[in-house]
Amino acid sequence: MNGILTDDNGDLIITSGHVTVGDNREQCARHLITAWTGEYKHAPMLGGNVRRMIAGGHDPFWAGRMKEQLKQCHISVEHLRVKEGNVELIIDNG
Question: Cα(87)–Cα(20) distance, rounded to whole angstroms?
Fold first, then answer.
């Protein structure tokens, strides 16, 4: 999936005076995983609430629900989990 790319701070990546376009699946996944449920007003059930998981709110079904939400956004995931305050995400390139 191609789209406008941003850096880790959310700023547009500019190359030679133009907005950079490229594969943005990881960027979209990062936005969805970090969003709170209800943050996207057009789709109020989307959002990973990962900050709650990192803060200790254990949810055994979180990874499965996130994979399903990402699938609905056309992002196939090989591996997803929260371990020691970090999110491990591997996107399927197939």
Answer: 26
